[in-house]
């Protein structure tokens, strides 16, 4: 039997017009009940029909959105197919209004197909929505996206940015794991993924502990919360999160930001390139490169560059946008040789 997940800690009194720095920089998850309960979309969400009508009021009818569609037998799980040769869903480009009306059509259906408009940029597809439904991040300028769908189960995955997820309609169950649970979550392929991020292969609705025995250890570190309209959860960078939409109509608004310069590339590029260049070396050579990464990347100190005149340190000096641009050009030239 799996141990129960602990509740995600809650913080009261947060003001969406001025979120404290301690929240925005938190390295631990936080639930903020009612943070965005004043939003008009939340007030409309007492009725799925009213929420759909509200969203349609911002649809400009221009470029289509991408809808993920899975058959009823998948029970909302967005995942691979049985032999991992592909996926258990298809993607369709449809107008936002068509996606919303299709969701409306299935509201009373007990076994509808799974329909999921995932991570759609709000300012592009629903212009004007944020004028009345927004959070003030001060000097930060997060990317705001919206997720619209019926019942869904999104496998546990990581995201590099910090993430404030606000439930605008329906209910969500969020299960979180610290980054160090990587080996206990049985992560699938990193270069062929359902939606861009590598995902846990464990079906949280029916965990197979014979196949995935270490998942029991992961659950000892799990935190969970069920969120209703107006509630929000802060998911720190690289925390694993499994997200379920629990109602026939669900809307989630996400804000994504990094507390790092915009010119910094994703470390995933480094990981992929290291797999190509380091992982399959003989053990003795891998150990050499492990020490090199420690010296230059993970534990730089006086021994790294203090013996080099400051003007001659190149990439060993603190990086800025110009140096990063030059380094990126050098890397591209090396890779394309």
From TrEMBL:
Residue ranges constituting the JmjC domain according to the UniProt record: 115-272
- Per the UniProt record, one Pfam family is Cupin_8
Q: Which InterPro entries does the entry link to?
A: Cupin_8, JmjC_dom, RmlC-like_jellyroll
Q: Where is this region: Disordered?
A: 1-20
Q: Which residues form the signal peptide?
A: none
- Report which superkingdom the organism of origin falls in: Bacteria
Segments spanning the bilayer are none
Question: What SUPFAM superfamilies would the database entry show?
Answer: Clavaminate synthase-like
Descriptive protein name: Cupin-like domain-containing protein
Origin organism is Luteimonas kalidii
């Amino acid at each position: 039997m799996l141990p129960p997940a602990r509740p995600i800690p809650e913080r009261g009194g947060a003001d969406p017009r001025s979120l404290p720095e301690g929240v925005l920089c938190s390295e631990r998850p936080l639930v903020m009940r009612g943070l965005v309960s004043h939003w008009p979309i939340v007030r409309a969400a007492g009725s799925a029909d009213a929420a759909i009508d509200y969203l349609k009021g911002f649809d400009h009818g221009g470029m289509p959105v991408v809808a993920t569609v899975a058959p009823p037998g998948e029970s909302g799980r967005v995942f691979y197919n049985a032999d991992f040769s592909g996926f258990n869903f298809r993607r369709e480009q449809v107008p936002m209004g068509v996606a919303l009306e299709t969701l409306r059509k299935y509201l009373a259906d007990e076994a509808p197909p799974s329909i999921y408009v995932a991570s759609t940029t709000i300012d592009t597809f629903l212009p004007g929505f944020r004028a009345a439904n927004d959070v003030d991040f001060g000097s930060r300028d997060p990317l705001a996206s919206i997720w619209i769908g019926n019942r869904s189960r999104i496998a546990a995955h990581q995201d590099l940015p910090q993430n404030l997820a606000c439930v605008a309609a329906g209910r969500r169950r969020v299960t979180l794991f610290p980054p160090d649970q990587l080996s206990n979550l049985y992560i699938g392929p990193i270069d062929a993924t359902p939606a861009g991020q590598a995902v846990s292969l464990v079906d949280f609705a029916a965990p197979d502990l014979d196949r995935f025995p270490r998942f029991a250890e992961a659950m000892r570190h799990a935190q969970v919360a069920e969120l209703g309209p107006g509630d929000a959860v802060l998911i720190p960078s690289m925390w694993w999160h499994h997200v379920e939409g629990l109602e026939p109509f669900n809307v989630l608004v996400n804000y994504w930001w990094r507390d790092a310069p915009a010119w910094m590339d994703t470390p995933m590029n480094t990981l992929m390139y290291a797999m190509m260049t380091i992982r399959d070396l003989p053990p003795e050579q891998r150990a050499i490169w492990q020490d090199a990464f420690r010296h230059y990347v993970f534990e730089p100190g006086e021994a790294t560059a203090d013996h080099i005149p400051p003007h001659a340190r190149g990439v060993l000096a603190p990086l800025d946008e110009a140096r990063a641009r030059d380094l990126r050009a050098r890397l591209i030239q090396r890779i394309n040789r």
